[in-house]
Write a structure and sequence with these properties.
This protein folds into 3 domains: 92 residues, MurE/MurF, N-terminal domain (Udp-n-acetylmuramoylalanyl-d-glutamate--2,6- Diaminopimelate Ligase, Chain: A, domain 1, 3-Layer(aba) Sandwich); 203 residues, Hexapeptide repeat proteins (UDP N-Acetylglucosamine Acyltransferase, domain 1), CATH 2.160.10; 36 residues. The protein has 4 helices and 39 strands. The protein has an 11-stranded parallel sheet, with no helix packed on it. The protein has a 10-stranded parallel sheet with strand order 9-12-15-18-21-26-29-32-35-38, with no helix packed on it. It is flat. The protein starts with a strand and ends with a helix.
Length: 347
């Protein structure tokens, strides 16, 4: 399928610089551009490539001013990256969509299946489960008894949604992610650890995307909740009874311990660890590998994680807050010592 610069500009409300009849049929990175491709320039580091790229059309921000001749047709927009995302969404939606239930899928007779669904070979839908309209279940996806999957939601290969859990509409669950496995609950005894039954559920609200091999554990009681618009990367762990606020994003290998409450519109870098039973406020930004041991007020930007022995860390954390003042005091003491040395040597 081909699109002209004129059609693209109309869709993303852009200004054409060049040939409005130039056509493209694919996407490419600006440094790997080919004729017939559309690319984008958002990061100034890649600006030199705009003069050599073979791409036919390049999306640029409105404030971009070329320093020499550009062969490609430019489309100027408010935000090139956002405009590219819209075009990629349009491209994805234009692809043919699978429908139908494969004979090798197994659906329990009591399950409720919506309209225009796709259920692939070896997918399983349990007793009294509900699958919404236009939902898609790829091979070996498993929907447990009484679980509910919303309209337009996609369960990729090997996704497991355990019994009684709920996944909203227009969600994407990537391969191998697990919704509703038991939370990590054990009671220590003289002879070992007794398992605490996890009788709660998981609720995934609408428009959530969950990466490959990410786990969202079921609650001990009540529900683990991932609110609308949340995006979780691959290999993220959300423990029992956690609540993640609307539109929060978490990069790979983030781990959130039990009963933590995460606010709305938060951003977590890779490998962030969140202690249990704490609250992270709205709009908190957390740098990669940060260890969050206590509650965080809304709007803070935090980073750092000294991985030392727990009791030592507890004692040291009191000192950390005073390090700037201690450093200044040390500098002053060093100056005084030098002055004293000079006075002694001059005697």
């Amino acid at each position: 399928m081909e699109f002209s610069a004129k059609q693209i500009a109309a869709f993303i409300h852009g200004e054409i610089i060049g040939d409005e009849n130039a056509t493209v049929h694919t996407f490419a990175k600006i440094e790997e551009g080919i004729p017939g491709a559309i690319s984008f320039l958002a990061n100034p580091k890649y600006a030199p490539y705009i003069y050599t790229t073979q791409s036919t059309i390049v999306l640029v921000n409105k404030d971009f001013t070329p320093e020499q001749e550009v062969k490609a047709t430019l489309i100027k927009v408010d935000n090139a990256y956002d405009s590219l995302a819209r075009l990629l969404t349009l491209y994805e939606q234009s692809k043919p969509r699978k429908t139908g239930i494969h004979p090798l899928a197994f659906i329990e007779p009591t399950a409720k299946i919506g309209k225009d669904v796709y259920i692939a070979p070896f997918a399983y839908v349990g007793e009294h489960a509900e699958i919404g309209d236009r939902a898609m279940l790829y091979p070996h996806a498993t929907v447990g008894d009484r679980a509910k999957i919303g309209n337009g939601t996609i369960l990729n290969a090997n996704v497991s949604v355990y019994h009684d859990c709920r996944v909203g509409s227009h969600c994407i669950l990537h391969s191998g992610c697990t919704i509703g496995a038991d939370g990590f609950g054990f009671a220590p005894t003289a002879s070992g650890y007794d398992k605490i039954p996890q009788i709660g559920i998981v609720i995934i609200e609408d428009n959530v995307e969950i990466g490959a091999n990410t786990c969202v554990d079921r609650a001990t009681m009540g529900a683990t909740i991932v609110h609308e618009g949340v995006k979780l990367d691959n290999l993220v762990q959300i423990a029992h009874n956690v609540e993640v606020g609307n539109n929060t994003v978490m990069a790979s290998q983030v781990g959130v311990a039990g009963s933590a409450k995460i606010g709305q519109w938060c951003m977590f870098g890779g490998q962030v660890g969140v202690a249990g039973h704490i609250t992270v406020g709205d709009h908190v930004i957390t740098g990669a590998q940060a260890g969050i041991a206590g509650s965080v007020k809304p709007g803070n930007t935090i980073q750092g994680s000294p991985a030392i022995e727990a009791k030592n860390f507890a004692r040291s954390s009191i000192v950390f807050k005073k390090l700037p003042e201690m450093y200044a005091t040390l500098n002053n003491l060093q100056k005084e010592i030098e002055e004293l040395k000079k006075q002694i040597n001059n005697q």
